[in-house]
Amino acid sequence: MLNKKDIILKGVAASSGIAIGRVFLFEDDNYFCLISKEIPKNARAAEKEHLDDAIERTESELKVVYGKINDVPGENYTHIVDAHLLILHNPAMKANIYKLIDAGANAEYAVYKVMEQIIHSFEIIENDYFKERKADIQDVGKKILANLLGKQRKTPLSLNKDSIVVSHNLTLADTVTIREKSVKGFATDIGGKTSHMAIIAQGLALPAVVGLKTVSSQVRTGDIIIVDGNAGEVVLNPSFKTIVKYKKECAAQAEKIKELENLKNLPAQTIDNHKVLILANIDTPDEAASVLLNGASGIGLCRTEFMYYNRDSMPSEQEHFERYSSVVKAISPLETTIRTTDLGGDKLAKLGLLNEKKEKNPFLGLRAIRLCLKYADMFIAQLRGILKASAYGKIRLMYPMISGLDELREVNEILEKTKQDLRSKCVKFDEEMEVGVMIEVPSATVIIDDIAKEVDFVSIGTNDLIQYTLAVDRINEDVANLYNPLHPAILRFIKQIVDAGHRAGIDVGICGEMAGDARYTAILLGLGVDKFSVSPFQTPKIKRAIRSMYLADAKKTTDEILKCGDSESILKIINKH
Ligand code: PEP
Ligand code: MG
User: Fold this and answer.
1) Domain tally for the chain?
2) Which residues line the pocket of ligand 1, CB cutoff 6 A?
């Protein structure tokens, strides 16, 4: 038996749980976007033609590159392209690909397999020159595959239920695509606890560790990996003993989840009878089912960015209507809070009008409501879709990233005009639909009394509120240690928001990741939060926490905490209680 030695990499715990599986190295291009499918005998000749075609197109591309390199003054690098052309026309390589196609493989898979064999044979030669040629082979392989697959086919179809996706980075669009493949977990080089990939992983109850810095360069597809989302580490090359230890932990974890199921139909009520609501955050309509399964009392945050991903044209009003009404019908009679789109920041979309120029500070740029105000047609299509869906159940409309009253009024004016237009055409919608805002920008917190008078509810978006208040990029692993929900400024801000909301007679929810972390439940309860919106799978855990405490105790502790000027003292009080 091989003598295995654990290699432990430490990162940021992004989504709890433990997963043991095989690495699927997800690269940000088409290289691993493979389909392994059987090609029938009578289609194999055409498959070879498909391959020849791709090789020919790759050759043309390389020649264009050759011309460009030749034009560059200074050192001549054309030998690199020469080497690539030689690889491309290597007769043995082509013969081997043909052989696999003759055996029934599709061209993509055959190219991938042959490239992998060549790369592997180069890796075991004890010679640096050959080891470095690996990169050239990879480059050529990627180019052929890109031509075989065409530009549209970015879905990693060879992912399976045992895969743990490892990548340098995963955009939200990548994660949304990958999630359809029901993988086991995620590990990335970069990212922080509230990056959107982390949030999706939590929503799927999949273990994830981010900010591992080098994991993507230390593994190969097929390697065994353990993702420990509780401790924020991954184990590469695990020994038998380590695998057994983690398997035991997995079993204990499954047992705990079972226990929590019993809470499903019980209210989120403290021992001294204070009731709050636990709602769910969802990122796509297909999560609506798990909201009910986990016993949430509705949807506190329905993100709508999914409408814009992996497409190159804007969603129509009808598409908006269909997707939102499907959620509302599934959740009715419970409420669904739909947030208007929060594109921008790290939520990139491949739509023509967005990110046409790279912003230097995208989180401070054209994001969320700002983008909607700039592209009013896009926004109105969404508003119309939401309004029409409101005829099918209780919708609350919520705007993200509101920074001041002028902005709020401008958006409400657009909403009012949209309603007028629908009325004039006798289109049904809920005239009583409540309209609220996310409080996630410090300026909105400072003027919260004024905002609270003009809205029906507020929901605290701590993911961004922490980022903007503490000036800590929420997806940058290098400052992840500074991203602190227990910073006194954050707790005092939450207190201000809750008190102002209650003075104005409206409810105050919290829908950032802080709400789904049981370590903060007592504090949030003590601060007076009315609604906790968490990922569906976190619902039972937060419910259990609430059902095991007294509001009076939580308040006492919180009063003590609010007097502290530093996080360490706050932590001490929490640990004491
Ligand atoms: C937040 O900022 O807390 C929030 C819930 O919004 P998002 O994570 O989508 O930015
Ligand atoms: Mg936010």
Assistant:
1) 3
2) 199, 301, 303, 342, 440, 461-464, 511-512
